[in-house]
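Example for reference:
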Amino acid sequence: MVKFYDTNALLLKMESLFEEHFAISSVSLSELEKIKTSAGKDQNIKYSARRLLHLLDTHRGSYDVHIFNNNMLTPIANKALPFNDDLRILATAIDYDNTCHPDDTVFVTNDLSLKNIANLFFGEDSIESVSEDLDPYTGYADVTLNDEQMADFYSNLNKNMFNLYINQYLLVRDKDGQVVDKLCWTGEGYRPIGYYNFNSEQFGEIKPMRGDVYQALVVDSLVKNKITMIKGPAGSGKTMLSLGYLFHLLDRNKINKIVIFCNTIATQNSAKLGYLPGTRDEKLLDSQIGLMLISKIGDRLGVERLIEEGKLVLLPFSDIRGYETEAKSGIYFSEAQNLDIVLIKLGLQRIDNESICIIDGDSKAQVDDVAFSGHNNGMRRVSKVYRGEKIYGEIELKNIYRSEIARIAEGL
């Protein structure tokens, strides 16, 4: 079986295309070239077209390009259908199925109209849509054990019977579904999760809300690991736990400063405000990162005072190249879902051995630019590369505490 992708499906699938051999029409290559240079196309779509063309050039042996010619339109003309690029791609796929892989071609499109037309030429089982591949890794396993399984597990705490990565957590539930233990796999056995809470001048006492087991895992990872990734929906406590811990360390002189790496792009589908006057810090304080800090710390003057004292550094990714963090810094990647692989790699390469790092974001639901989505998303790539390393922990939060309105809104 060979999958034959239309242009839209190619853009949606991106890097994971090359996990198996596939086919495309020469019409799609022409469309991508047009998108790349079109003055009327959104910059995000143009970026994706350029990125896809680069990947296609890099992986030339991984796919077939079937060259379209007008003779292929005969089946389309016989159905009295109008000619356009979508139908030219479909015509190419029909010819590819007839001449290259008889009855063994699957046509892939997310265009409902084109899918309905394709039904005239392909069987229902030979038409597919593209769904984004989401990594199910959460940083912990959640298991429910009966009495016999529980006894067996605790008799073998040096065995990795759940196939965990080093520093992956385990939530153990009894047969009634209650969490009875929280553990972390070290590579040699399980260690229990400690109880910690943080205090700082800016945030007061920070601890897991309402005994939230997932937040308890975050707190443990912050204390134990050099780098922690915290994922989760808006209102789940990512920012409060991250900044609460960093300011706790700052107040106790365990770090010298907090450095916030930020990529201040406009929220998806929102209008852009344009140029903001002032210095770099003044502009950042008027952007989403500044507004977030002001809302968490309490007032703008407090944030400005921390910046003036050198205890807080706001660093946009546009200025990050060449920057080296001072020893014993607390590095915070804010809204890291809005980073591609190149940007997040650049940020991580700035960090010295005496510093710690927290990456905070929601790569599943809040990506504000298609250039940072799917397999090009930096958070997802960091997760895959770092999981299992002894310095790394990752936790996905689930519960939303901001408000009942925010909790229900997650279902929109």
